[in-house]
Every structure is written in structure tokens, then in C-alpha cells.
Design goal:
The protein has 572 residues and is of the alpha+beta class. The chain contains 18 helices and 28 strands. The N and C termini lie far apart (56 Å). The structure holds alpha-D-glucose-1-phosphate-6-vanadate and cobalt (II) ion. The site of cobalt (II) ion has 8 residues, from loops. Alpha-D-glucose-1-phosphate-6-vanadate binds next to loops.
Length: 572
């Protein structure tokens, strides 16, 4: 069938010629074929397309990007699609647009989280469980929300994971060539209660956003043991949902199923602007939780998650567990957890993540993979059964249970571990370091830089890479410098330009890269680490231990000369 360049016509998709598509009211569904022109800058970044809300709300902007996704969907005819988001501003409107476009593009069935809500890991779980062709997750993750904030669209493939680069590039090419998009004319579908609705020939099923995910968690972890821990009277926890998507999940799982007292979960109601906060679970943006865990009457365990629920921060009483250490601790203790009692097939970490987990892998005789930043690079390793656990320094940890990093999963893993070991977090961490040594680690972010000088800084550094080896910075000499490139061991695809790595003679390391998720100017990330084998030196402040390396980083990249900044904006 042919379509005019614009104007309305009756849809006859998936139907024998002459048949009409009838909606719930018995009316033929009308479809608009809307003429459009490409927008610049619709290339997905580290994790989907992220822009200011004002950019997404321009006429046709969202529609162009969504239309560009449909051609890459495998087996689109008769396909099921999963749809939900983190509840941020514009979530509700965007969901209705996408539903109407899905109907116009021949999707058979869409499962939507009630109220348009699905955390990123829950969406991954639902895609896998219901054998969907893919999913669209509306989120800009840890970026602030609200009318002045950010919005985003992530597209996940049938394995439940973020689309790999080959797919995001295909989508990007479509956004460059788009001339029209298709959208059904239909009133909003009610999403406030579970139920089934017809949108033309397409079925919209509104599902409980928590149920499938909670059931999966119950299969992986010893809920009875965690329940007993909460009931012991000797354990208190504080979970800060930062007014983002994990609120409903944490209330349902921690308080209702696991018996944590009401009030354990704070800021548990998702708000469109996250209460004005920055839904990023780190030492800077989750300050209230950090303060609560460092007070005299602090609870035993603290945790937070980000806007879309895929990140986690782990705290003990007066103790912060770096995400890199968290991954190593989980790997070292996985056999104590029901879902992982048979051991790990292998582990993976993003390149800038500290090498703490490498030491556990070596001790256990399992493979450890180093991938570029972004969860999409773990997908093939997980699908091929080469790794069970993986993680990133950016507060992301996960396993082969889904194909996304998973905030609440990591919290439940820690809870299960604490229920088995019955010891404080700081003791557990100290013991881990005693066995494996400590990788002192920090990340310095320089946010909202002018893009041109920031890019020039990295280009210039790139040119000097060949001259760095043998140079002395303070007490260290550079032993190795390169620009990280990755060859996927499963499909052989190559990703270049993934960050500059500098290693020193004492094995200390600096990594420089530019963020692929920011929406304001450029963000430089500097990752710094140093290994300390001696337990007598394990109790120090990372910023002090790494001071020499921090100075070397400034000198090597000439950060101040290029950016005018004398200090980072965020230290984690
Ligand atoms: C950041 C993190 C990266 C993470 C990505 C998406 O990317 O560094 O590790 O995978 O965010 O996480 P970048 O390019 O800004 O460094 V999420 O929770 O924002 O989906
Ligand atoms: Co996130």
C-alpha cells in the first residue's frame, strides 16, 4: 500500500486488502502521515538520546526520533513492545505520542507500566519475560528533570539490553533521512489502572510496574534471611529513592515484602522534577543520605538509586563503598547468594572502573573483561554466557538476571550478604581489602565546560600520547599511554576512542574521557586510582592518597590552561 506524503488515511496494516482497522469505539483508526525534516544532533550517546525538555518539546522532535526506531525493530509485524519511563516531566505526554505512533507503525501489542512508570532494570526484565521485540524507556537517568531539566529516550533490544552501537548508528542514520512519520489519531489511553485497551488494531496492556521485577528478585535472593535481618532488632536501613522511580519498587520490596519498618524508604514518591533534586546517587547529590549515615545515631546500612533505578550507592555506618569496590565485594561473595551459588562464569567492568574486581577474578580463576563505558558493551558477554556479574565506577552494578545495571538488585545483594555475614559494612570492606588489597579510587568531573576547548584539550593530549612514556610526574614515571579501543570478543565489532589511559611505573592509573550523557556543554571525567597492598595503610582518605596523581593529571592534560578551571565540580 502506498501513503501520500502527508494527510490522513485509513490504516490497513497487517490486514487483508480492503479490511479496516477498528478501534474500541468501533471507528476506523485514522493515521496521520506527517511531513517532517531531520533535526541535527539525534545521535544517541552513552545511554540513549538526552536533551533539554525544551528541545524534546519542539514540534516533531520526539516523533522524528521514535519513527527512526521502528525500522530497526526485529520482526515488527505482530511484535510486542515494552514502554515506560522514570516519571519525569514530559513522561506522560511522550508515552501517549509513542503509543499512537506504535499503533500507526503496525506494532501488535504494547505493555506499559501503570502510570507510565517502569524503571530501566524493570523494563529489561519485562522485555525478557514477555519476549518483546524491544522496549522504549523514557529517561535521562541521573540528569535533573522538570520543565528546565532533561528528558531522554533509550531503546532496548530483544535481549532486554541497551541497543548496541550498530543499532544506535542505524537509528541515527534514520534521523538524518526522515521525511515523514506516522501517528494514529486517537484520544489518550488511560494508564492509571492495570487493564487492556485497544488502540486501533494494537493492544495496550497496562501492567503493574513492580510485579515481574519483584518476582525475579525473590528468585535470586534469600528473602527469608533478609526478612530475619530486618526483624532481628539489630539492623536499621535507610533507602533514599531521591523522589525518582525506585520509590514504588523499594516500598513494595523492602518494606512490604521484606519487613523493613515503614520509613526505611525515604523520598519514595516519584515526582516530575525529583523534588528539585539531582537524582544521582553519589556523595555530592545524595548528601542528605550521606549525612544520615555519618551521624552518631546512623543506621547500619544506607543506599540510594538514580532517576531511572539502574544506579546504586552503598553506604555503611560512617562508611562509603566505592562502586568499584562494591563490584569486587559482590564478586568475591557471590557463592553465598542463592541466585549465584554455583559461582560466576566471569566478570566484566568498564575500562575506567578500578581493577579491584580483576583481583577477585584472578583469585577465583575466572575471566575478567574490560569494556568501554556504557552498559551496551556488556550485552554480548552476558548473552554468550561469558560473564555473570559486571559493573561500572559510575554507581552501576548488575548481572545476567537482566541486561541493564540494576540499582535495587545491588542493594538486595548487599542485604543478602549482610544477612549471611551479620557484620558491619565497614568490617566486611576492611576484610575484603585485607585479602585482595585496596584500590584507592576517585573520579573528578569538570562539568559544563565550553565544548570547543574541552575537545581541543583531549585532541592535543591524543597527539602527545606517543611522547608520554618515560616522562616523570612527581614521584612517578609514565610506563604506558594509549587511547582505549575495544574489540568485542563475541561479534568482533570494534569501538575506538573510548578514553585515554595513562599508567605509571607503580601501576597507578589515570583515565581521561568526555561524557556522552551530559546536555550542557562538555564534561571532562578524570578517573584516578592507585593500589595499596598493605593493610596498615588501608584507612586513609582517597583524596590525600591520590593527591600526587591528581596533580599529575592536571599537568598531563593541561586542564587549567584549556578550561580555566582550577578544581573539579563534582568529586566522587
Ligand atoms: C555515564 C557513566 C557511564 C554510564 C552512563 C549511563 O556516562 O559514566 O558509566 O553507563 O552514564 O548511565 P558518561 O558518558 O556521561 O560518562 V545512566 O544511569 O545515566 O543510564
Ligand atoms: Co540511570
Amino acid at each position: 500500500m502506498t501513503f501520500p506524503a502527508s494527510g490522513r488515511l485509513l490504516v490497513k496494516l497487517n490486514r487483508p486488502a480492503g479490511a479496516q482497522t477498528i478501534d474500541t469505539n468501533g471507528h476506523a483508526m485514522k493515521i496521520d502521515n506527517v511531513t517532517t525534516t531531520p533535526f541535527d544532533g539525534q545521535r544517541p550517546g552513552t545511554s540513549g538520546l538526552r536533551k533539554k525538555v525544551s528541545v524534546f518539546r519542539q514540534p516533531h522532535y520526539l516523533e522524528n526520533f521514535i519513527q527512526s526506531i521502528f525500522p530497526v525493530l526485529e520482526d515488527r509485524e505482530g511484535a510486542t513492545l515494552i514502554l515506560g519511563g522514570d516519571g519525569r516531566y514530559h513522561n506522560a505526554d511522550a508515552i501517549q505520542v509513542i503509543l499512537r505512533m506504535a499503533a500507526a507503525n503496525g506494532i501488535a501489542r504494547v505493555l506499559v507500566g501503570r502510570g507510565g512508570i517502569l524503571s530501566t532494570p524493570a523494563a529489561s526484565c519485562v522485555i525478557r519475560k514477555h519476549r518483546a521485540a524491544g522496549g522504549i524507556i523514557l529517561s535521562a537517568s541521573h540528569n535533573p528533570g522538570g520543565p528546565q531539566g532533561d528528558f531522554g529516550v533509550k531503546f532496548n533490544i530483544a535481549n532486554g539490553g541497551p541497543a548496541p552501537e550498530s543499532v544506535t548508528e542505524a537509528i541515527y542514520r534514520n534521523t538524518r533521512e526522515i521525511r515523514e512519520y506516522r501517528i494514529a489519531v486517537h484520544p489518550p489511553v488511560p494508564l492509571e489502572r492495570p487493564g487492556t485497551h485497544a488502540l486501533g488494531t494494537m493492544t495496550v496492556e497496562v501492567i503493574d510496574p513492580v510485579a515481574d521485577y519483584a518476582e525475579l528478585m525473590e528468585r535470586l535472593f534469600d528473602f527469608d534471611a533478609i526478612h530475619a535481618l530486618f526483624n532481628s532488632g539489630a539492623f536499621r536501613m535507610r533507602f533514599d529513592a531521591l523522589h525518582a522511580v525506585t520509590g514504588p519498587y523499594a516500598h513494595a520490596i523492602l518494606e512490604q515484602r521484606l519487613g523493613a519498618p515503614p520509613g526505611t524508604v525515604v523520598h519514595g514518591t516519584p515526582l516530575e522534577d525529583f523534588g528539585g533534586g539531582h537524582p544521582d546517587p553519589n556523595l555530592v547529590y545524595a548528601r542528605e543520605l550521606v549525612d544520615a549515615l555519618f551521624r552518631a545515631d546512623a543506621p547500619d546500612f544506607g543506599a540510594a538509586s538514580d532517576g531511572d533505578g539502574d544506579r546504586n550507592m552503598i553506604l555503611g555506618r560512617r562508611c562509603f563503598v566505592t562502586p568499584s569496590d562494591s563490584l569486587a565485594v559482590l564478586a568475591a561473595n557471590a557463592h553465598l547468594i542463592p541466585g549465584y551459588r554455583l559461582g560466576l562464569r566471569g566478570v566484566a567492568r568498564s575500562m575506567p572502573t578500578s581493577r579491584a574486581v580483576d583481583r577477585v577474578a584472578a583469585a577465583h580463576g575466572i575471566d575478567c573483561y574490560e569494556t568501554p563505558t556504557g552498559w551496551k558493551f556488556f550485552g554480548n558477554l552476558l548473552d554468550a554466557g561469558r560473564v555473570t556479574l559486571c559493573g561500572e565506577e559510575s554507581f552501576g552494578t548488575g548481572s545476567d538476571h537482566v541486561r541493564e545495571k540494576d540499582g535495587l538488585w545491588a542493594v538486595l545483594f548487599w542485604l543478602n550478604l549482610l544477612a549471611v555475614k551479620r557484620e558491619p559494612v565497614n568490617k566486611l570492606l576492611r576484610n575484603h581489602w585485607r585479602t585482595f588489597g585496596r584500590d584507592y579510587y576517585t573520579r573528578h568531573d569538570y562539568e559544563a565546560l565550553a565544548p570547543e576547548p574541552a575537545h581541543a584539550m583531549l585532541e592535543e593530549l591524543h597527539k602527545r600520547l606517543g611522547t608520554l612514556t618515560g616522562r616523570r610526574y612527581g614521584e612517578r614515571t609514565v610506563s604506558f599511554a594509549d587511547d582505549f579501543a575495544y574489540t568485542d570478543p563475541v561479534d568482533g565489532s570494534v569501538s575506538t576512542g573510548q578514553g585515554i589511559r595513562i599508567r605509571f611505573d607503580d601501576d597507578a592509573r589515570i583515565v581521561f574521557r568526555l561524557s556522552g550523557t551530559g546536555t550542557e556543554g562538555a564534561t571532562l571525567r578524570v578517573y584516578l586510582e592507585r593500589f595499596e597492598p598493605d593493610p596498615a595503610h588501608h584507612g586513609q582518605d582517597p583524596q590525600r592518597v591520590l593527591a600526587g596523581l591528581i596533580a599529575a593529571a592536571g599537568e598531563i592534560a593541561q586542564i587549567q590552561a584549556h578550561t580555566g578551571r582550577t578544581a573539579p565540580t563534582v568529586i566522587t
